[in-house]
Amino acid sequence: MGDFPIYIPSKSRSEHMMTSKYLTYMGVKHNVVVEPSQMDEYRKSIKSMDLLATAVELDMSYKEKYELCDNHGLTKSTGPGPVRNFAWDHSKANGHSWHWVMDDNIRSFRRLNKNEKVKVASSSFFKAMEDFCLRYENVSMAGPNYFMFASARNKQPPFITNTRIYSCNFIRNDVPFRWRGRYNEDTILSLDMLKAKWCTIQFNAFLQEKMPTQSLSGGNTSELYQADDKPQKGQKYSQTGTIDKSQMMLTTHPDVSKVVHRFGRIHHHVDYGPFKRNKLIRKKSAEISPGTNNYGMGLVDTTQKQ
C-alpha cells in the first residue's frame, strides 16, 4: 500500500462515489473532502456502500481566500481548487511530506504492460509511483496518464517528464505553490512548478480511466460548465464553460498557451517544449536494485466485478 494519504474532493455526488468505490476494491483507505452541508449524506453513502473512506469536512474559508484568477469572485463556483488546497494543508498538518488528490469520477486504475491495459486490484499501484518519485530531489508532482491517451498498440515510454499532471496528483508538500484558478487549476499548477524549474512525472505504465469532462452530473459539471447555458442542439458540451476554461490559460500563462478547437469543443493548447530542459536530479541516497520490481503485481484471472 502507498505511504501517503489520499484525498478526493467531492460535491453533490454522494450517490456515485466512483473513485472511492474503486479504491475500496483495491483495499486502499482514503479521505473524501466535502462541504459541511453535505457531510451527513456522504457519511450515509460511505456506510451503505461499505467504503474504505473517511468523510473530512471542508473548512469553507478556503473558498474565500482562494486565488480565482478572474473577476467573478464568489458569484460562480470556485471549482475544486480550494478543496485541493485544504487537502494539501490537512496532509501537512498530519505530518505527511506528500499527498495524493484525485477527482471523484475515476472508473478504474490500470497498468499498461505488454500491450495490455489491465485493471489493477493492488494498492502497490500507488506505492510504485511514490517510490519512483522519491528517488529524485526535484520532483514536485506526478501522476498516471489518462487511459485514453496511452495507446496499448504503440510503444510508450514508461513515463514522460515535465508536462501537465491532471485528475490524480501526487504532490510534494513542501514546494512553495498552491492550487489557483477557477478552471484548469491542474494545468496552471503544473506550469507554475515547471517555470520554477521543478520536474513533473506523468506515468504511462500506470493509468487512470477517468470519465470524460461534463459526462457526470454534480461536481463542476453543473456549477461551472453548464451553469450559464445548456449545450445547444447537436452539441455535446456547453460552449460558454469551455471557452471560459480555455481563456483562463491565456490569463495565467499567456507565453505558452493558446485557444484551439479540439475534441468537439473549445479547448486550450499548451506548449511544454520550453520545460524539457528541466532535468531529473537523482538523490545520492537512492538505491535501485537490478532487475524488474513488479511490487507483487501480476496477471490474475478473475471474474470479480468492479
Task: Give a brief rundown of this model.
The protein is of the alpha/beta class. It contains eight helices and twelve strands. The strands form two sheets. Strands 1, 2, 3, 4, 5, 6, 7, 8, 9 and 10 form a ten-stranded mixed sheet that branches. Strands 11-12 form a two-stranded antiparallel ribbon.
Features:
306 residues, alpha/beta, Spore Coat Polysaccharide Biosynthesis Protein SpsA, Chain A, ten-stranded mixed sheet, 8 helices
Can you describe this structure?
With 306 residues, the protein is of the alpha/beta class. The protein has a domain at 6-213: Spore Coat Polysaccharide Biosynthesis Protein SpsA, Chain A, CATH 3.90.550.10. The chain has helices spanning 18-25, 39-48, 61-64, 81-93, 124-133, 185-195, 219-225, 239-252; strands at 6-9, 30-34, 53-57, 98-102, 106-113, 116-119, 139-146, 159-161, 168-172, 199-210, 257-262, 265-270. The strands form two sheets. Strands 1, 2, 3, 4, 5, 6, 7, 8, 9 and 10 form a ten-stranded mixed beta sheet that branches. Strand 2, helix 2 (39-48) and strand 3 form a beta-alpha-beta unit. The longest helix has 14 residues, at 239-252. It is globular, with a radius of gyration of 19 Å.
